[in-house]
Amino acid sequence: MATVPTTTPNSIFETAHRKLKDSVSSAHADAFQTTSFEEVWTAAEEIEKAHEARGNLRNMRRIAPFLKGLQNYSKVIEVLCNGTPYMPWIWLADQYTSIFDKLLDAYRQIAEVMPQFGRLQTAFSNDPNFQVVLGLVYSDILDFHRRAYKFFSRRSFHLFFDSMWKSFKFRFNGILKDFARHRDLVMREVVTIDVVEARELRIKSQQELEQQERKTQNYYLHDSISWLKVPDEQHDELDRLAEKRQEGTCEWVFRNSLFQSWKNDAHSDAILWVKGIPGAGKTILSTHIIRQMREGSGFATAYHLCNSYTTGKHLLGELMRGVIVQLLRANPDFAPYIFENYANKALAPSAARVKGLLEKLVQAIPSIRIIVDGLDEYPLSDQRTILNEFLSLSKLPGGQCRILFSNRESENINKRLNGRPTISLRDQDVDLKKDIGLYVYAELDGFRGDFGNDLIDRIERQIVAKADGEYSMFLWVRLIMQSLEECHSPQELVESVNTLPEGLDKAYKRILDDLKSRSSDKSIRILQWIACSFRIMKVHEIKDGVALQMSGAILNEHTKLVDSFWEHCKPLLEKGPKNTIDFVHYSAKEWVLLQLHTDNLLISLGYEDFSEAHYGLALSCLNYMNSSYCFIDSAVSNQALALRVLKGYHGLHHYANEFWFQHLLQYAKAGDPVEDEELDDPLGEIREFWKQEPGIGAGNLKLDDTTSADKIKAQLEALASTPVAQNMGLDVLTFQKFLSQESSSHQAPTNLKDEELRCDPTHFSDISQRYQHIVRTLMDCPVNNPPEGTHPQELYTFKQTYLDSAFICRYRECPRYSDGFKTPEDRDNHEMIHTKPLRCADPNCEFFARGFTSKTGLLKHNRKYHPSLEEEAPPAFEPRKAPEPPLVEPPAPAPAPALASPPLPIPIPRDEVPESVPDYTDQKERGKMPSKGRVSRAKKGLKVHDCDLCTKVNTLRGPMDDINSVTRTRSILAFGRIVAEHFFAPTFSGDMSNSSK
């Protein structure tokens, strides 16, 4: 006999029971504790009667073997079984017929593999090894219940059932395998039970199952997120803004009664509006709220930080997709549903589909909190659309979605949010004054060593006092603090504080007046680049763009600007992460672009209608693109190209390659024809990059969406006066659309780059790939071993400048196509959201991980190896044929005596099973048992067929010789009943309580 294990049976029972109890609500736990077997039987009968009343009667007898098995099991272990939650979710599922059938079938499968506890009750009940195995069986039972409880207790689970049950079934099959293995152990003689082996096998099985389950779930999650096509910019922006918060500030909001009600009170208004003037600290407050709620428990928190650089995209769709991804990461159990119904069908994530999906998730996921910050930065039409859609989300029946909007007032926003609970930062002057005091104290700390504590304390009080009241804003304080950095004596410091501008408007005006008086032309070009670019720019990109913003400009060691070229624009501009430059606040950009026209400063800065700014940026990009011809010039050596890249003459490449035509188009849309002498030469030169006549290449590219070509042509109407530029644009925009189609998203990056080279009507793709290859080579080159003709310091400077974005995403529609990653590993990890193969229906199939690149290939594979019920071939059926008449009529044979057909088993209720019945075991040999071949019915007989049930009945009839007569009788009756139900379902469809009749 095996050694008694150190783990006691009681500890196994207690661990399994505790895990289940911890996973259920307290109310359900109390109900489970008092549930008896009789109540479960009664519940099953009541459910069947309810189904009968609704006209969709189900076969509840499928659950009977499971309940009987539990009864016998409880007699063996005599602990905790009355506290086992047998089937409380039956009541949740019984309204949905297909779901109800799957659940009953699950209980039937468990009953099939449960051990026969009745005959073991007295024989081995005191054996410790045997008790450990019983404990493992108990763990199997409760493992199923725990996971089923989690599955069926989800809100709106019926909406996602079909897809999520397939994922759950993977775990369920693992539980059944454990059941079968432990059943085999229990049915052995006790001396042969190897408990150590049993436990080790269980651990190994659980580990393998969990590993495979995680792997499959990761595939579902990856493909679902890839389908939504959401860039990872929001997370980076949240981290960037969170770093600006001074420690100890913003804590007051968590004590605010309106915020507490919105966060915790399900009966309060689902909407909360945080409003304030520009620069009051709304965004920093929002980021702190987001971080705190995401780190806490009990809420599914999603957010969106609006940014003016996203203007021109489908903002509502982008916002909804971003929210779905965040909810999905917090609730990955919904990934199988999105995978099966959207991602794996190669459907485009249109606004309508995304909206419907988000509504379903909101109804299914409890306690959702969404924070939307900076909605006022979006165009008015997008503000209105986003508000309408998200306000409707908060009203969905059964949903618990609560939304916080943080923004300044505007006509659209006021119209929809007035009357809702509102936290106005203007009314939080006491709390904000404390926060500003903390910020000013921390910022002035560096001045104390040079100017002494007394003077700095006095300066601190003056700044805090002036920031109070109507000027209570963090942005004003930031601008003032940056201006103090120019003071180098106590007198300058005092004078600067005494002449502080009152309010944000006057602070901006003073800064811009100073810019006009200092290096005006260069300042204009810097502000044009930052204000009118299509994404946030890096220092080296603006540096080259400003230098190239003149007719015929080229970059060389004499024309390239120094890195500090922009610093005279402080404090209006600030340096951000990844070596970027941006306005210190959105209101600063807005002030420059929209508000300064009252004193003609806007016109003097070149922003009369933005067309001049786009003209300048288009000129810079064209000048750069023409300088990149060297990459395809056979006369230029690879060493010379590497030297040019190393010296920084191609720092504008990614941006210019992506957006040169967009700036030209924006200039043309202003109404002025593109007939400028300064543009004639650059446009003539860039014509040389076309492989054939401009406009021909677009006709060779097949677009999935037949309306896309018409939309592209409509965009180009502004260039009608310049046919060459119009045809160039037709090729460029069509090619970009071609690469962003859904068919490209399934291709590996290497295949995609090959297709890009083959289909591009221009040489720009070839140039980009050669440039990227040189950058990668330089990044891999050790600093102490630079390329020939260069100095190690040059290589070091190059790496420091370009490292943050050296490795671009290779998928054209991605924002990171022109703004890359620090390492190839980061790039490859990011590209996983683009490489979304179509997967087959079975996660265990070897083709599941590999996937298919086309929908046609997937359909062929599924039809061959994983057909649906509708696609499965019917079972083989050969009708009986009449015998062919013989050539000579034989004499008629004598009639054979009719064999008596045994009656079909009559269903007997569980409490009326006779103690003894005739034993047919020996009669089988005497020919008195019905044959196995065919079951006859009256005089007609049944059609010959070969189904799983009949095979199972015939197979399992035999091994009953070692079972007592009562058990054998019940088994025979049960099999007879199954056969009867199989062939006469309408006859035996009555409820359980009347089955004996």
Offer a few descriptive terms.
single chain, 997 residues, mainly alpha, Rossmann fold, five-stranded parallel beta sheet, three-stranded antiparallel beta sheet, 42 helices, 4% strand, globular, disordered N terminus, disordered C terminus
Tell me what you see in this structure.
The protein has 997 residues and is mostly helical. Among the domains are: 9-227, no CATH class; 230-427, P-loop containing nucleotide triphosphate hydrolases (Rossmann fold), CATH 3.40.50; 431-500, no CATH class; 916-994, no CATH class. The protein is built from 42 helices and eight strands. The strands form two sheets. A five-stranded parallel beta sheet has the order 2-3-4-1-5, with helices on both faces.
Count of discrete alpha- or pi-helical segments spanning 4 or more residues = 42
Largest sheet: 5 strands, parallel
Helix content: 40-55%
* Radius of gyration, CA atoms, in whole angstroms: 38 Å
- Order of neighbouring strands in the sheet with most strands: 2-3-4-1-5
